[in-house]
Amino acid sequence: MKTRDYEAMFLLDNAAAVADFDGTTGSIDQILAKHGATIVQKEKWDERKLAYEIGGHKRATYYLVYFRAPTDTVARMAGDLKLNDKLIRHLTIALDEPIEVHVKKRAEERERLAEESRKASLAAGWGTGDDRPRRRREDGEPEAFEVPDVPELNEEA
Amino acid sequence: MPRNTNPAVKKKKKLKKVIEKGKCRFTKARVDEVDYKDLATLQKMVSAQGKLYGRKRTGTMSRFQRKLKLAVKRARFLALLPFVAR
Lengths: 157, 86
What we know:
The structure holds two protein chains of two kinds.
Chain A: E1 3-13, H1 14-19, H2 21-34, E2 38-54, E3 57-70, H3 73-83, E4 87-94, H4 99-124
Antiparallel strand pairs in A: 1-3, 1-4, 2-3
Helix pairs in contact in A: 2-3
Chain B: H1 7-21, H2 25-29, H3 39-44, H4 55-58, H5 62-77
């Protein structure tokens, strides 16, 4: 059967993806492989707040996969993906250009974003401007800035 | 040759400049496709309500407006953009 190149984006349940990313994505990869897909590249695209609530989920982990598969795979795997309770939603797109072009574009994009976020954090002096939870400080690690001593106003009264 | 000081001609020239400035951003960027993952671009093409701006406002070429429409719809489905903003 004729094969085509595809790009798929999966919205994963955030709790499951944060706790065990490899396990959660592994179950998706298995379904793809079961229906004859060859995964070319997979990556965690982002972890973000959803623009609207989907089935009680407010945040999700976005998992991006580029794969090559026979043309009947996408329809067949849809049933199995529906049964996966870690998966909130997914979108598969048939690519017109060869998969390598997209993978290369994506790598360039990632580099550009990394550079931008580095510059932005340098310009702002701290943080990266996103709303994700900050890394917990190691034991004994100093505060990022000194907290000034503010005298109590009520003391004199 | 003396410079044309006719205000009507000047105005016309200025108008032409403005139109050139507002040319299609996708043509300028020399892209083939509009990516649904490129939220920085998509967010500039929708209103605060989340509605897609028309071609007249953004100066997008008709070919790219159709691709843009598809990209926005894909982004909405994946909850990257709202269907209706609150």
